[in-house]
Amino acid sequence: MNYFTERRFPHKQKYSVSKIFAVTTSFFGLMASSCSQQTAMNAAANQDSSLKTLSTKTTEKNNVIRLGYQKGGIIPIARQRGELERQLATQNIKVEWSGPFDRCATLLSSLNGNRADIGGCGDIPSISGIAAGQPLCIGSVQRPVLNSLSNAILVRGDSAIRKPTDLIGKKVAVNQGGAGEYLLLKVLEKENIPSYKVQRVYLSPNDAAPALYQGSVDAWAVWEPYISIAQLEHQARRITTTHPAPTYGILVVRSDAAKDNPVAVKAALTGLSQNGEWLNQHSDAASDFLVKELKISDAVAKQVTKNRGPESYVFPNTEDIANLQKTADWLLEQKIIPQRVDIATAVCPLETTAPK
């Protein structure tokens, strides 16, 4: 039988156990290698897909800019006009709106709380917010107009107060750390009146207006459009004409937005500046926008537009930074802000600072 078997199948050879094990191991090694390569390829594909998804989400986030606004000013007018949204859409940037806010303090809080990226305020509340540690930076500025009537100290029409020296011993409504308090202190400084001789009553504009009309305070340091509303609708009267230290307007930016989304921030600031220049050439249109936005009369809107002057926003240059630094240092001297603000480092890092 052994002979028959061996001769019947002469092609068969005997293999040792070690050889069989080696062949088997090699086979499964090739299979494992193939599976590992496929797994690696699948993992790489999945990672690439995840990165693409993350990149898409980041791009979508970076293509949204949120504009916060008060009643009046360039941002709500740009919102009504619609040109800014169309302009930014060509750059694949979507605009979202947040507001209206009743004053700068609440607008700055929305920026601080990551509910908006850009907002329009005066330099005093903006500097105060930065000094308080809010994560804000200066985007663009509206330079002071020396003969602007956009700020005033008002009294009731029947008041015996005729001039700033008559404020001694009186109550004046101001917004704390804002343009109203700054105006009052600068007027008192110019008239050589010690500030302690005039009582400051800290009220928001919405509370200060009825306080003045009802006699709870004797005067009110405020800005447009509240001035024209008080004058034309409530017979209030100015006791100051021009500001002894005209202020800047500021388009203030949430610091993280400027850092993470500089292209969209810069595009929005540029677009708002262009809207301002358009409005400067179309004052009637600017008044019409105010009528719709503030629900005020044509007469009030026309006076607001005239008193405010041009809406021209530019990226700050070295002279602007120096002027704002003087204001910040004065606010510190008056103990209106808790710490010094370095204006140069407070300008948004958009590589947009204009030359001298």
Task: Please write out the topology.
Layout: H1 2-8, H2 17-62, E1 64-70, H3 74-81, H4 83-89, E2 94-101, H5 104-112, E3 118-122, H6 123-131, E4 136-142, E5 151-155, E6 171-174, H7 179-190, E7 199-202, H8 205-214, E8 219-223, H9 226-234, E9 237-238, E10 249-254, H10 255-260, H11 262-280, H12 283-294, H13 298-308, E11 313-314, H14 318-333, H15 343-346
Parallel strand pairs: 1-2, 1-3, 6-7, 6-8
Antiparallel strand pairs: 3-10, 4-10, 4-11, 5-8, 5-9
Describe the structure in your own words:
The protein is α/β, with parallel strands linked by helices. It is built from 15 helices and 11 strands. A 6-stranded mixed β-sheet has the order 2-1-3-10-4-11, with helices on both faces. The chain starts with a helix and ends in a 10-residue tail after the last helix. The N terminus is likely disordered.
